[in-house]
Specification:
Helices cover about 25% and strands about 15% of the residues. It is an alpha+beta fold. The chain has a single domain (about 15-270), classed as Sandwich (Jelly Rolls), CATH 2.60.120. Strands 4, 5, 6, 7, 10 and 12 form a six-stranded antiparallel beta sheet that branches. α2 packs antiparallel against α3 and α2 runs antiparallel to α4 (about 105-110). The protein is globular.
């Protein structure tokens, strides 16, 4: 296996430090077993449970928008391959409405706000489901990565019974920036009570300003223990995890110069309190922050 890095730090891929995510397709039809495994593992990894046609329609929609600002090489490759052009016209467009358009297209909303994802959560949560209106679209070029963090520090003003769905919008092998989960990190009570108690919009100073726990996955592992877990993800896969499951990403080292395209969205019971920053036609998000927010 080629060397795997995050922010340039090479991971120790020995069996004691690194492993594959456990798949849960064997219990997909047993909601109680899924809930028990979530408590045990802090995540559920489900292969090929989403409609691949819907996933790829969302991919095409996003790539068409990126191609409109010349970030995709359509002269030498099919659009759907998502090969970066090395160019960009972002500075020539009004970036706020561009980003709004990127995350609110009909195809991406069909993927994350309707269909298979909602059906899964209705079964998993045993009730009517409410998703955040805000959709996070990640388009990570070669060289990009994400630091270790809990999602709770970004969206912890509602129910604690809130879950993230990380969706590869197209295949995302390890070498192209796959997600990493730190094994058993959802059970680290001291971490949850210290770093995990912060709110990025309230706690804008200090060692965790911006939301990341750390950039160096080796140092994080040395401090907290556990193996880094990942997989080669395919279009149609779904990764679900808790608000206190520490995660980051591998570097996108695509030899083809492919952009990593993913989404991460949040789901909860409709009857429980919601973090209002992420709801409505124009969510306020982190608009009151004094420092940039960094996330998955």
């Amino acid at each position: 296996m080629s060397a795997l890095t995050s922010f340039g730090y090479e991971l120790d891929t020995s069996p004691e430090k690194f492993g594959e995510l456990r798949e849960s397709n064997d219990i997909l039809d047993d909601a109680e077993a899924l809930r028990q495994r979530m408590v045990a593992d802090g995540y559920l990894f489900l292969r090929d449970v989403l409609d691949k046609k819907v996933v790829m329609a969302a991919r095409r929609e996003i790539l068409e928008r990126l191609a409109s600002i010349r970030e995709i090489d359509t002269a030498n490759y099919p659009l759907i391959e998502g090969i970066a052009s090395g160019q960009s016209e972002r500075r020539r467009v009004d970036i706020k409405p561009f980003n709004e358009d990127l995350r609110t297209g009909e195809a991406i909303r069909a993927l994350v706000h309707r269909g298979k994802v909602i059906q899964f959560y209705e079964k998993f949560l045993a009730g009517d489901v409410r998703s955040f209106d805000y959709i996070w679209i990640r388009t990570v070029k070669v060289g990009g990565a994400t630091g270790s963090h809990y999602d709770w520090v970004y969206m912890g003003r509602g129910t604690r019974n809130l879950y993230t769905s990380w969706i590869p919008i197209g295949d995302v092998p390890k070498i192209e920036g796959a997600l990493l989960i730190l094994e058993n990190s959802h059970k680290l009570e001291e971490l949850k009570n210290t770093y995990g108690a912060m709110d990025v919009d309230r706690d804008v100073d200090g060692p965790y300003a911006g939301g990341w726990f750390g950039r160096n996955p080796l140092a994080v592992q040395e401090q907290l223990g556990g193996r880094w877990l990942t997989a080669d993800f395919n279009a149609g896969d779904l990764l679900v995890f808790t608000m206190h499951t520490l995660h980051c990403s591998l570097d996108n080292c695509s030899p083809a110069n492919r952009i990593r395209i993913t989404s991460d969205t949040r789901y909860q019971l409709a009857s429980e309190p919601v973090d209002e920053r992420w709801m409505g036609d124009t969510p306020i998000a982190h608009s009151g922050r004094r420092t940039p927010t960094r996330q998955t």
